[in-house]
Amino acid sequence: MTPIAAGLLLLWYFKREQSSWRKLSVKPRYLLYASIIIACPLWLSYVGLLYRGEFGANAFAEAMSLTGFWQHIQGSVFTDLGQLHSLAGAVAIGPGVLSGDTFYGALSWPLSSVLAIPGRSAGVFIIEELVGFGKNQERWGVNASLIGDAYLNFGLAGVAVATLVWGVLLKMLYLKFRDGNLHGAIYCVALLSAVQAFWVSIEVWPQALTTVSFTVFLIWFGNTLLRVRRVPTR
User: What is the domain extent for residue 119?
Assistant: First the structure.
């Protein structure tokens, strides 16, 4: 969903730029758009939950149930849409217990896949410590968020440093984009990946790096081999 959302964001930006950034006014249709934008990720999350559960390929048909979808929304307010449960779990466990393993394992990817670099999922660790896993039970976790990751790995000081670095890097990307030194598609993908990392976990770094790298390759491929050029408007 990240590349699709990035593409839609880029199209919106170009459309607003072409219209000279006219002032936005709240209209009834915008409320409808907002409802659809919110409902689509929730529904896809519901489909994924059913697919990973007992329904498999029948998840799409089962997800058409409005009753089941509404029950999912009621529960997702505390799970998919909010991190208070995972942050409460992190506080209950204590600060700095993972000694940075979550960050070392995620940020060193793909080296961590071939070298003995320590790595530990904070979300899985929270469930393992507070709930536990049964015999032969599949391991699962919660979205610890960047704040939860930093707290479990480095304590309160780590929360301040991690969020500060995250904000500085995001601001640098924005300034490069505004100055025309960063391609709009790369910025949109990087922006949404950064938001996902803050909301979900630093563990999305391999996914973000893969997506951004693929975007850079596609732009290079179009500009060099395919010689894709923007047609100037009169």
Answer: 83-234
